[in-house]
Amino acid sequence: MKLYQSIFACIALMTILVLGGKVRHNQSNIPYIISDNLVNFNGNSIGTKSNRIWNLSTRITEDSIQQLLFKHKIPGFDYEKFLYNKVKHTRIALAFSGGGFRSMLLGAGVLQAYDIRSPNSSNNLGGLLQATSYIGGISGGSWLVMSNFIGDFQPIFQVKDDSKSWGMNKQLLEGIPSFNPSTFQENIVLEEENIDSPETIQLNDKKVVEEEGKGSVINGILGLFGIKPDMTSNQATKPNNLNLNKKAGNSTNVETFFISLVKSFFSKSNQTVEKSKEEKGTSLKEMFSYYKELQIEVRDKRKAGFHISLTDYWGRALARRIFPQSARTPGATITAGTLLRSFRNWEQPFPVICSIERSPLGTESSKDSHLFEFTPFEFGSWDSYLNAFIPIKYLGSSLLNGVSTHKTENENISICISGFDSVSFVTGTSSSLFNHVFVYLYKLLVDVKSDATIALESILKAFGLSSEYRRLKNPRVHPDYALYSPNPFYGLTDVPFNGARITESPDIYLVDGGDDGQNIPFQPFLQKSREIDLLLTYDMTADLNNYPNGTTIQATVDRYHNNKSSILLPYFTLPPTLFSFPSNTTTFKDKNYNSTQNKKSVLPYFPTPQEIVEDNLNQRPIFLGCDLQTDYPTLQLNQNLSLNSPGIEKNYYEHFLPPLIIHFSNADYSYKSNTSTFQLSYTNEEMHNMIENGSNIATNMNSSYFTTCMNCAILKREFDRIQLNINPNYIDSNFAIPSFCLTCFREFCWHR
Predict the structure, then answer these.
(1) Of 406, 415, 401, 422, whose CA–CA distance to 308 is shortest?
(2) CB within 10 Å: which end of the chain, N or C, has fewer?
(3) Neighbours of 641 (CB within 10 A)
(4) What pairs with residue 92 in β-bridges?
(5) Which segments of the chain have a pLDDT < 50?
(6) What is the distance between the alpha carbons of residues 346 and 53, in angstroms, rounded to a whole number?
(7) Nearest CA to 613 among 696, 544, 685, 712?
(8) In 3-state terms, what secondary structure has residue 172?
(9) 263 vs 258: CA distance, rounded Å
(10) Cα-atom radius of gyration of the chain, to the nearest Å?
């Protein structure tokens, strides 16, 4: 019975997209007084609200940093004098990659290790989380970020054992099995190689292949779920108008290929998840109720007049597994989350999650993709093609050139929409990779013209996927994208170069934050206005055998180090005199630097995937950007891009010091943690082991030496400000970097 439930779940998931239902609306229109254009141009000053409010948290983070420094003292270092003479508060950010539940659970281990509230954390880096100003995520990393945000910063050690907070022991999608696509192509090749050269016969004017015992497409699908249809070695079943009635027939080449294709996704050999007792007991009635509930919750948005997409359903499914019960309702919004106690009291880091704008009519590589971000206050992009933000609470409002089109009799009052910023929809947007599974399958079928594939095409069209979908720019035929309609940036007049695609479209199409290959959210934390001093990045990507090897980092390097970029790349400059980082001495003296070509990328050099693998750099933390002179490439800016384009302040960050980056990679510190991105449930034991491994990654296996080295990393940019004479309290001094820190930098800093 359980085996048929998987098939039923697929049918139910497709059916809910076209079924109706009478539900209560949670979108609402609210009047507000317009004092200015809603769109905030020039991302370098964003924050107008974000930074103004979050600056108030620095007193909390700075106190936590001081506690860390005094708890794990750097030998021979006068903390009190140094901290008294600092010129700015230190800001730390955490950035988590995509990777489904794998990334979320390993990232949860990182938070647990850095949280002073966790048992025994004070022995190592406990308190670092309280010292952190920002936390960002993409895809699976965004699940952690938003769960932490909407869960009111509940400690991980409590969340992981609280059934009312997480529900990972149940399948993320009821009835849909976990699968591992890492051997996808290999499985297809093996299947095809095992097919003999059978006799070709003619049937209904179509060439088909006679393969005894193989069965038809539908039987193949049933078989991959473990269902063995009744048939003799010379008989097979064939679909008849989407019914499962038996009928004599034979498999075609295409049908056999499709069976191999789907088998590669759902191969039982790839399923390592032990089904929970709750899931084993799920009845067909309960399963239908589950999908019907998703449909009802999403229909509310459709009834309010908005386009819906797969991401709406996906977000509602996510909410049931990663959010606390109090935040699982369809009406839970990001704006409402700002009223939570931990957020209002600046106890939790400021959350940022990322997505990519992509036209259905074209594609971009990581070099010129359009990166967007969501925060509790704003939605928009730092990139030069737009460089603008809108208050997130007004998403869903119809705007023209930043002003609401819904006027009232009072010319100073217009009508805007609230409630569009559903926390589940936004979280689903950053992790909409799963939508591509359906699209990928469909693209392989659209050119096939057999009875079986026509039947399957009819099913897939329930998702709105048609063979014309790539040629039409209409939200109704692109449900694989997260649809943000109406476009809040529509009709902007002061648009930068290359921004017309955004401002001339009534809709914005967003996809998974790692869709362009950049699977770690560097972008939000390389901006001058956020003033990040230390960026901790966690790569939980599945580059090779579900482990990271630096491929995703290379995509970001290709973007930021591209001298022919169509996007105005941010860069920084250093003072005319730079005292190079002393490798053999402990004082800064007489290190002159010629600054005639001093336009540096804000992203340092990274090791290549080959270097990472050969030197085992994915088995330990590495420091990047230690030397401001040699670790950052000099940019030869594209002369075709005007720095004085409308709406753009020069991306010229004078005397801005980009953050030191500490990069961590998923590795088996205490548990084999290369689970599939598409493993859709975890037992309690698996969850605990993954979290523990994440904690060990974060602390370099609870190393006390590394803990003290982290204090050196926290202070590194302040050391550099002294080095560059930016700190007036140390001009003409003989300040010396502690010898312990120099040893740490020699061990952990990577140089090209």
Answers:
(1) 422
(2) N
(3) 18
(4) 534
(5) 1-36, 43-47, 182-281, 438-472, 579-596, 639-640, 642-650
(6) 9
(7) 544
(8) coil
(9) 8
(10) 27
CB 615 within 8 A of CB 467: no
The pLDDT assigned to 302 comes to 86
What distance in Å separates the CA atoms of residue 698 and residue 709, rounded to the nearest whole number? 13
Q: Does 728 sit behind a cis peptide bond, omega within 30 degrees of 0 on the bond before it?
A: no
| Residues 134 and 572: beta-carbon distance below 8 Å | no
User: Residue 302: helix, strand or coil by DSSP?
Assistant: helix
Distances (CA, A) of 536 to 143, 341, 540, 663: 18, 26, 13, 6
- Which of 574, 573, 533, 579 lies closest to 733 in space, CA to CA? 579
How far apart (Å, rounded) are the C-alpha atoms in residues 284 and 286? 5
| Half-sphere exposure for 320 (CA within 13 Å, toward CB) | 17
**Residues 265, 281: Cα–Cα separation, whole Å:** 24
DSSP code string of 502-550: HHT-SSEEEE-TTTTS--S--GGGS-GGG--SEEEEEE---SBTTB--S
- Give me the long-range contacts of 542-545 (CB less than 8 A, separation at least 24): 542/99, 542/102, 542/182, 542/674, 542/676, 542/677, 543/609, 545/182, 545/674
Q: With contact defined as beta carbons under 8 Å apart, do 346 and 56 qualify?
A: yes
CA-CA-CA-CA torsion sign (284, 289, 292, 298)? negative
Q: Measured between alpha carbons, how far is 664 from 647 in angstroms, rounded to an integer?
A: 37
Contacts of 639 (CB under 8 A, 6+ apart): none
Q: How confident is the model at residue 41, as a pLDDT?
A: 63
State the DSSP H helix or E strand holding residue 94, giving kind and residue range, or none if neither. strand 92-96
**Cα–Cα distance list, 558 to 95, 231, 366, 433 (Å):** 19, 55, 7, 22
Cβ-proximal residues to 731 (8 Å cutoff; 6+ apart), any chain: 725
- Cβ-based neighbours of 27, under 8 Å, separated by 6 or more: 300, 301, 304, 306, 396, 417, 418, 419, 420
Rounded Cα distance between 451 and 443, Å, is 17
Q: Which of 547, 520, 715, 525 is nearest to 617 (CA)?
A: 547
pTM: 0.81
pLDDT tens digits, 122-156: 889 999 999 999 999 999 999 999 999 999 999 99
DSSP codes joined into one string, 417-447: EES--BHHHHHHHHTGGGHHHHHHHHHHHTT
- The CB-based long-range contact list for 286-292 (8 Å cut-off, 24+ gap) reads 286/174, 287/5, 287/8, 287/9, 287/12, 287/174, 287/175, 288/8, 288/12, 290/12, 290/174, 291/9, 291/12, 291/13, 291/15, 291/16, 291/174, 292/12, 292/16, 292/19, 292/21
Mean pLDDT of the chain: 75
DSSP SS3 for 217: helix
Task: Tell me the one-letter amino acid at 592.
Answer: N
Q: Give the number of other CB atoms < 10 A from CB of residue 516.
A: 22
DSSP strand pairing (92-96 vs 534-539): parallel
Amino acid at 241: N
Phi-psi region of 289 (alpha: psi -120 to 50; beta: other; left: phi over 0): alpha
Q: Please tell me the distance from the alpha carbon of residue 306 to that of residue 691, in angstroms, as a whole number.
A: 39
| pLDDT recorded at residue 55 | 63
Task: Judge whether 89 and 61 are in contact, CB under 8 Å.
Answer: yes
CB 437 within 8 A of CB 266: no
What pLDDT is attached to residue 305? 87
